[in-house]
Amino acid sequence: MQSKFFIKSTQIAKTIMEMKVSHGNTVLDATMGNGHDTAFLADLVGDEGIVFSFDIQDIALENTKNKLNELGLLNRVKLIKDSHENIDDYINDKVDLAIFNLGYLPSGNHSIITKPDSTLKAIKKVLELLSKHGILLVVVYYGHQGGNEEKKCVEDFLKSLDQREFNTLKFDFINQKNNPPVLIGVEKKG
Ligand SMILES: C[S@@+](CC[C@H](N)C(=O)[O-])C[C@H]1O[C@@H](n2cnc3c(N)ncnc32)[C@H](O)[C@@H]1O
To answer: Does this model's pTM top 0.85?
Structure first.
């Protein structure tokens, strides 16, 4: 038997991206990987919008560039090979939505993972850059070594945000085995 609505965190994240992002928006994919979210966002922002997309691995930039080229979406994406903790070196505008997928690139080198320190630095900078009613989505994969530590760091920080400024919500499949990814969403209040 299959679920119809509560399928997986990545699907819920997509639904939120569709609800929030419109033509002309400025958005951020902080963990480009193979470019699934980057391409999805590039479609949503249209010709006048822009997607900033970060990764530290050449293979991520190469795969994503190829995917965007095939889809005819490369013109609205800035592919940046740098750690997301440096986003403020590249983005001056307010950001309408940002997404992180924490963990490793499934088809790549599993020892190259997001790390608590740089992830937290990046998340703090993103919260500064978010526009009013801007949304941060963090999909936390944590089944790998070090994953639990990163999950705790991120959750502890996002739990501590002042509720007068932010609303934070967690989607967690609490009856599933094998550590399915958790989705945390933050909205900056207006
Ligand atoms: C779970 S994968 C992302 C999957 C991606 N959303 C997709 O659509 O394929 C995590 C990615 O984060 C990248 N990464 C790790 N540390 C990073 C950092 N400090 N800054 C930016 N990207 C990083 C990895 O290289 C990896 O490609």
So the answer is: yes
Any idea what the CATH number is for the domain that residue 128 is in?
A: 3.40.50.150
Whether 4 is in a domain gets the answer no
Based on its alpha-carbon atoms, the radius of gyration of the chain, rounded to whole angstroms, reads 16
Q: Is the CB of 76 within 6 Å of ligand 1?
A: no
Number of domains in the chain: 1
Q: What is the pLDDT along the chain (190 residues), one digit of tens a residue?
A: 889 989 999 999 999 999 999 999 999 999 999 999 999 999 999 999 999 999 999 999 999 999 999 999 999 999 999 999 999 999 999 999 999 999 999 889 999 999 999 999 999 999 999 999 999 999 999 999 999 999 999 999 999 999 999 999 999 999 999 999 999 999 999 8
The whole-angstrom separation of Cα 38 and Cα 74 is 10
Q: Are 46 and 24 in contact (CB under 8 A)?
A: yes
Sign of CA dihedral 108, 36, 133, 126: positive
Ligand 1 proximity of 14 Cβ (cutoff 6 Å): no
Ligand 1 atom having least distance to the Cα of 83:
20
Mutate which of 9, 14, 27, 32 to test ligand 1's pocket (most atoms within 8 Å of Cβ)?
A: 32
